[in-house]
Design goal:
Helix content: 10-25%
Distance between the termini: 50 Å
Shape: globular
Strand content: 15-25%
Structural class: alpha+beta
Number of strands: 38
Length: 869
């Protein structure tokens, strides 16, 4: 009894001086605070800070709408709202993918400015994120986890869609729901654009077609200006507006000069330090956000009822900062630059002191004002960013942000000197009446009239459109008339040539773009395109360069090279040099058609998703506005994880990665991507492992499937230590006996640890060449790695792998395939063997089969456990 007492006393003494547990330390670092509380609409309106004379009026709110993320209007001004009713209803985001969300329809029946009639237009949707009203009763809706778009139609006029049919078949789209397309705007050029996707859509009388573009870098929201220039919003990479210099069909160009000094710094009115970037994104004096982190919902104000000072300015939300940024858009010498006109006073156009104000989307409204969609909630980040153990989760729990849900408001920006415009009735008007609206001062009216004219395909208005394109005193009317004719396939080469001489440069630039669809029938237009490269306006000359390249005009490369050196315009020179110096991929590898397709898909994914955090050059993204050296995400170029065993990168893509890497902290979180298909994962990993200076092998669908099976029970992101402990291990090469079919005297060079030395057949590759390893004792193997970086063309054009226990009786091939580069990684199910033989099965003239370093890989415990199942 005495002994037990002494042991307990000693244990108590140890506990008394032991450091606090990590959980206790966390609680001390994040002590409970007064929970955030939802304000009613009147109180919320009082929380807004705006320039003198401006105010926000409520046009719709809960309970009529809840969790709104985007709104759009049909030709009669009825408002459609996408409501994500299952988004983050608790801190873990449980049951988010239950299809119980909706698109609602709202009507202002007495035109008093408040929507008073409400119906659920389309119900039982999976987190709807895109709305495109077409003609009467028709709305295209895009949901989460798919690229498919469906046309919902109200055939009896009761405000509820009773017909649903496919409009565009895009296929499944996995991944975190924050990293999926949004937008779906019908732009001036009759292209229908979304974020992320490296394509645009185009409606035709025969159906919707898909046209290739490049990845636009956008995430949530996009909008266009009066000239059809599209602004995409990048949140994940903390970039703000992107890809607005030239249309995305020509490329994704973001010169370092496109933002004024300090543009990405933000000035919220309230802060709670609830930022995914952690303390690196906190302005310590008041816990406010110090830099873009969740920019969304771009809209260029193009209405006619607010003060002229706002017209042409870009508006977008920063929901994490509880603010709306207004950006002046200025184009000089062909280069566009954005600046914050409220930066001098360290402010924003719109700020709120309400922590639940979450502005997600903006839109120029039919009444000539600007509408702001406020998701109004406590927690705005998706569950992957508030996982257990994360910094953000601690702050969310500290203030009980997760308790404010199931609300939402839509606000109208007003000014004391202005009144709302009249209600449109375009769905009930004739094509001739719609043509007149192309001269309307409100861009929404012009856009909608053009869209309806194209949809109706009534060519009786072609003469009126041609007259407007040629004679209207309003250059914007001429611009819309030209593009409407293009949408009706009624734009002629003669009209294009006439517009190439228009006094306004935007008409000349538009005529160049319209010419691209006419060249097949009139190749003489190529001469006109090249002539326009000397236009005195830099924007026109830049467009001529891109059009010439797009059409593969004769000697267009020479033309662009000449402009790069001789043009007096800095903008023309900048874009000419960007065209002439695209990123270079690995030129030494000969891929099959299927492999090229795989890598192309991976390139599109990387540019549309991964580059936002890891950089277009895969060298990582520095966190602007943070401490020197702070990085949003690590470099993938030269990464040990990328260039090591395939499983390393696959495991990270499947389950995410958190915490420091080799002592360095990264502010971004690598979230799980397991909801994407095996094909998707194989493509993007193959692309990264074979580009940016990386020379590793491709990743197959089978590799993904094996890794998925072996880690199927994992529910948390890896730490780097956990990841490395779970990876296959390289066998010690001591005691190996090597033989080969050719040049056996040099086999030891393949395992001498010196990458510059090599084993080589010293003969052209022919089928039947083999290289054999005898191990000191039987071992379990799961992979072979052949490296030939110093002679990158000497990889095996084909191979088989066999094993044996005695060197006499050999198995059937346990692996076969094709080498694809300087590193050939051959994986197979775990197998016990003492002998392993690699046989070269391909043929190539003028190149030997070389092995600079050979490694045999033992399976991880995960792989062994999976193999036993």
């Amino acid at each position: 009894m005495v002994t037990c007492t002494r042991i307990l006393a000693a244990a108590a003494a140890v506990l008394a001086v032991s450091p606090p547990s990590p959980l206790a330390a966390e609680k001390e670092a994040f002590p409970p605070k007064p929970p955030v509380a939802a304000l009613d609409a009147k109180q919320a309106a009082e929380s807004f800070q705006l320039p003198p004379g401006y105010r926000l009026d409520l046009v719709a709110g809960e309970p009529a709408i809840k969790e709104p993320v985007v709104c759009a209007f049909d030709g009669n001004g009825r408002m459609f709202v996408a409501e994500m009713l299952t988004y983050m209803q608790d801190i873990d985001g449980k049951e988010q993918l239950v299809p119980t969300s909706r698109v609602s329809m709202h009507t202002d029946s007495d035109n008093d400015g408040t929507y008073d009639q409400h119906t659920v237009f389309a119900d039982n949707l999976l987190l709807p994120r895109m709305i495109l009203p077409l003609d009467k009763g028709q709305v295209v809706i895009g949901e989460t986890d798919t690229l498919d778009l469906f046309l919902h139609t109200d055939t009896n006029g009761d405000g509820v869609a009773d017909k649903k049919e496919p409009w565009f078949k895009g296929g499944p789209r996995g991944g975190n729901l924050e990293h999926q397309p949004s937008g779906l705007i019908w732009a001036l050029d009759n292209g229908i654009y979304t974020t992320y996707n490296a394509f645009r859509l185009r409606w035709t009388p025969a159906g919707v077609i898909k046209e290739p573009t490049v990845g636009n870098g956008g995430q949530w929201g996009l909008g266009q200006d009066d000239h059809g220039r599209v602004f995409f919003m990048n949140a994940g990479g903390e970039q703000g507006p992107v890809s607005f210099q030239v249309p995305s069909v020509y490329g994704n160009y973001n010169p370092g000069t496109q933002f004024a000094q300090g543009f990405k710094e933000v000035w919220p009115a309230v802060g709670r330090a609830d930022y995914q970037g952690g303390r690196g994104r906190v302005r310590e004096a008041d816990d406010t956000l110090n830099h873009f982190t969740a920019t969304s919902g771009a809209e260029v104000y193009r209405g006619d009822r607010l003060p002229a000072e706002l017209r042409g300015d870009l508006f977008f939300g920063e929901p994490v900062g509880r603010l709306v940024r207004r950006a002046n858009v200025e184009t000089k010498d062909g280069l566009t630059v954005l600046n914050n006109p409220h930066q001098v006073e360290k402010s924003e156009f719109l700020r709120s002191t309400d922590p639940c104000f979450r502005p997600l989307n903006m839109v120029t409204a039919p009444d000539g004002t600007l509408y702001i969609v406020d998701m109004y909630r406590g927690i705005i980040q998706e569950g992957s960013w508030v996982s257990r153990g994360s910094y953000l989760r601690n702050v969310v729990e500290q203030y009980a942000f997760d308790k404010v849900t199931d609300r939402g408001r839509i606000w109208r920006l007003m000014h004391k000197t202005t009144k709302r415009g009249p209600q449109p009735r375009m769905l009930d008007e004739t094509p001739a009446q719609l043509v007149a609206h192309l001269e309307h001062p409100n861009g929404w009216w012009r856009d909608t009239a053009q869209k309806l004219l194209v949809l109706r395909q009534d060519r009786s208005v072609v003469p009126a459109l041609a007259a407007m394109a040629g004679n209207s005193q309003n250059y914007l009317a001429r611009l819309h008339a030209l593009w409407t004719l293009e949408g009706l396939e009624a734009a002629s080469a003669d009209l294009v040539r006439e517009k190439l001489r228009d006094e306004h440069p935007q008409l000349r630039a538009a005529a160049l773009r319209v010419s691209e669809r006419l060249v097949k029938s009139d190749k003489s237009l190529l001469v006109d395109v090249q002539r326009m490269s000397t236009d005195p306006d830099p924007s026109v000359a830049i467009q001529a360069m891109f059009t010439a390249r797009h059409l593969d005009a004769p000697d267009h490369g020479k033309l662009i090279a000449t402009l790069a050196t001789s043009s007096p315009s800095a903008g023309v020179k900048t874009f000419a040099e960007l065209i002439l110096n695209p990123p270079v991929s690995n030129p030494t590898v000969q891929y099959s058609a299927a492999e090229k397709k795989l890598l192309k898909a991976g390139e599109e994914t990387y540019n549309t998703l991964c580059a936002a955090c890891h950089g277009a050059d895969a060298k990582g993204m520095a966190m602007a506005g943070a401490a020197p050296g702070a990085m949003l995400a690590p470099a993938l170029a030269g990464s040990k994880t990328i260039n090591g065993p395939r499983e390393a990168a696959i495991y990270v893509l499947l389950h995410g990665l958190t915490g420091d890497i080799d002592g360095k902290k990264y502010e971004g979180l690598m979230i799980p991507m397991a909801t994407n298909s095996d094909e998707w994962m194989a493509s993007v990993l193959s692309y990264v492992r074979t580009n940016f200076g990386n020379k590793s092998g491709l990743v197959s669908v089978q590799d993904i499937a094996r890794a998925r099976a072996s880690t199927k029970d994992r529910t948390q992101p890896w730490t780097i230590a956990e990841l490395r402990s779970a990876l296959p291990k390289t066998l010690d090469r001591k005691g190996w006996k090597l033989t080969s079919s050719h040049n056996s005297t040099k086999v030891e060079a393949a395992i001498d640890g010196k990458p510059e030395s090599r084993y080589s057949t010293d003969k052209d590759q022919t089928p039947g060449m083999w290289f054999q390893v005898e191990l000191p004792q039987e071992s379990v193997l799961s992979a072979v790695r052949l490296e030939s970086a110093a002679s990158p063309g000497d990889y095996p054009r084909g191979y088989t792998v066999e094993v044996s226990s005695d060197g006499a009786a050999w198995s059937k091939p346990i692996a076969k395939g094709t080498g694809t580069g300087a590193i050939t990684e051959i994986t197979f199910d775990p197998v016990r063997a003492k002998f392993l033989r690699i046989t070269q099965t391909g043929t190539v003239k003028g190149l030997f089969w070389s092995i600079h370093e050979l490694e045999l890989i033992a399976p991880s415990a995960l792989q062994i456990a999976t193999a036993k199942r």
